[in-house]
Amino acid sequence: MAGEQKASVAVEAQQQGPKLPQKRYFRQRAHVNIFNDIPLEYPVRPSEEDWSKLYPAYFRSTPDDTQAAQTASETKRPISPTSANDSDQEGPQAKRGPGNGSMSADKMAQVEFADIGCGYGGLLVALAPLYPNTLMVGMEIRTKVVGYLQRRIVALRGFQDDLVRRKDAGESIEWVDVRSKLKQEIDALSKPLDPDAEELHDNGETDRLVPGHYENIAAMRINCQKYLPNFFNKAQLSKIFILFADPHFKRRKHKARIISTTMLAEYAYVLRTGGIIYMITDVKDLYDWNVKHLDAFPLFERISDEELENDPAIPCVVNSTEEGKKVARNKGNKYLACYRRIEDPAEQ
Amino acid sequence: MAVFPVTIIESSPQGLMAFVAESDFTVTDSAGKAIASTIDMGASSDDAAVAKIEGPESKEAIRAACFSRNGALFAVCTNEKAILIYETASWSLKRRLVSEKRTNALCFDPESKYLITGDKFGDCHRISVDNSNDNDNGNDNDKPEILLGHVSILCSVGFSYGSKPYILTCDRDEKLRVSKYPNAYNIQAFGLGHREFVTSVATAPFASEIAVTGAGDGTVRLWRLETGELLQTVELDSLMRKYYESGKAKCGENTREDRTAATQRYGVLRVRSSESLRSFVAVVERIPAVLVLPIGDDLISFGEPVLVDIEAAPTDVATTEDGFVVSFEPHTAANQEEAPAIVAYKKNSADYAVDDALTDSLASSVATPQTVKQVHVPSIFVWGNKQFLERPQGEEEEEHEE
Question: What residues sit in the active site (chain A) (predicted)?
Answer without folding.
Answer: 246
